[in-house]
Amino acid sequence: MKKLLTLCGLILSNFISAQDKPNILFIFSDDHSTNAIGAYGSKINTTPNIDRIADEGAVFEKSFCTNSICQPSRASILSGVHSHINGVTYNGAHWNGNQTVFPRELKKAGYQTALIGKWHIHPNPTNEFDYWKVLVGSGGQGDFYNPDFMSIDKGHEKIMGYSTDVVTDESIKWLNQRDQNKPFLMMVQFKSPHVPRIPHPRYMKMYTEDVAEPETLYDNYQNRLKGASTAWMEINGQNEEVLAYFPPKNATEPVNKKQQKHLDRMTPEQRKALLDAMDAQNSEYYEYKKSGAFNDPIKARKLKYQFFIKNYLRCVQAIDDNVGRLLTWLEDNNLDENTIVIYSSDQSYFIGEHGWAEKRWMYEEALKMPFVIRWPGKIKPHSKPQAMIQNIDYAPTFLDAAGADIPERFQGKSLLPIFSGEKKEVRDAIYYHYYHHGAHNVPRHEGIRTERYKLINFYTNKEFELYDLKNDPNEVNSVANNPEYVEIKKKLLKQLKAQRKEFDVPESTFTAPWVYGK
After folding, report:
1. What are the pLDDT digits (tens) for 464-489?
2. Which of 21, 26, 189, 404 has a beta carbon 3.0–4.6 Å from 117's, enabling a disulfide?
3. CB–CB of 28/121 below 8 Å?
């Protein structure tokens, strides 16, 4: 009897401690620029539900990725290590699901874990989560309408509806069916606002007037190295398939194959609703196209920015609305007080800055990552920590919050001391490395960013850019060869070398040749 009572006591103790552990709701999108989030000072849209997380918790204004491209960023979040350690250095690289990842470590600590939505790592998950249901098709991106999923229990299935809504529906369904005796990790991962940005008809009445242009929309790429002027990511280079515009009702121009692919995803009712709602804007686009207005590079940049940004912001609005649905679910189930809520994206994004619509570069608009977090009782509302953080810090932070051991392999650092106010910084510089050799005509590069300076090493050409972020926040004037910055550059080179050593970057990385495209 005594042994039985002791056993029952241990079971009860574990049960109580499990109930005390915080749930983790990690909401994640793709290509959501910090400049399109209210909490980061957006001047072009509002995001009240994402902002609510920040208002009731913290917004990290100096949050950065390690490699600004979809799959590597996601792999670093899961593994807590840089790309060269987890093996996912570029889109399409093989993911080793057997390596240490924080969801599996949380499971060991008594959590039930799930990921629903955009996975976009190759191959699909195996046992990284207790449950997974991931978007498939379109190169692993998934589709905006009636998306296809692959799941651990049902295999392949198509679910009718708008992708952002469907991912939320499926996430709430899992939350309702979960084991309520265990804390949970729920990773809700949206495809939006990744290209092609097809909005839901309910948002087409938004942004009918011109959206404010960024300061650097008409950047001429002077005072920098050749790469900025030759990269293939200019807004005026995007066509109607990428911008997700369709021939209007009165058009003589036929629907092309890529446009038809999008339309074929929809039911006749969905297709009619979308095309009716978009007709005025579609008509405007094709009128400009027929007039030859897009042939002028400057005029094309001005006009196509408006076509691009309006659909982008409409897709962002769908995200924010669904973030609100998830927050409401927590409240309705009395879980809001013991749940950590995070909103983030795999990287920020150029939404017209420098005339671009992409990521990849170490320039601020691509280097940044949104990271807002709410943890009642642990994070003071309206906090704006100035610590420089990276996506490799998420994994150790989640494990630390759960009271679990942090694997020695992890290269990131727990942010709990920042939350508590015990520390103001976790590092004095961040390390970045982009490997996707020549994609979008962007060269390989690495670099470090400190509070004030950024040194970018385009090592395949043995060239550097250096930016004084205090005097040049838009990064339009490299001072790498300015004699006034000689000592600063020497110091940064020394820091860069130290960062390579700290993160075990192999010397062989820097020997691969690369030639600029035309």
Report:
1. 999 999 999 999 999 999 999 999 99
2. 189
3. no
Q: Which of 261, 266, 271, 264 is nearest to 160 (CA)?
A: 266
Chain mean position to CA 477: 27
**Whether residue 193 has a cis bond before it, omega within 30° of 0:** yes
Q: Considering Cα of 163, then 166, then 168, then 174, what sign does the dihedral take?
A: negative
Report the run of H or E that residue 373 belongs to, with start and end. strand 371-374
Distance between alpha carbon 497 and the CA centroid of its chain, in Å? 28
Token pair, residue 399, equals 């494990």
pTM of the model: 0.95
Q: Are residues 332 and 20 in contact, defined by beta-carbon separation less than 8 angstroms?
A: no
Are 24 and 178 within 8 A, CB to CB?
A: no
- The pLDDT tens digits for 290-301 are 999 999 999 999
- Amino acid identity of 295? N
CA–CA separation, 78 and 187 (whole Å): 11
Q: Closest by alpha carbon to 454, among 435, 471, 436?
A: 471
CA distances from 268 to 57, 144, 205, 273, 275 (A): 44, 15, 21, 9, 11
3 state DSSP class of 366: helix
Per-residue pLDDT of 163-204, as tens digits, reads: 999 999 999 999 999 999 999 999 999 999 999 999 999 999
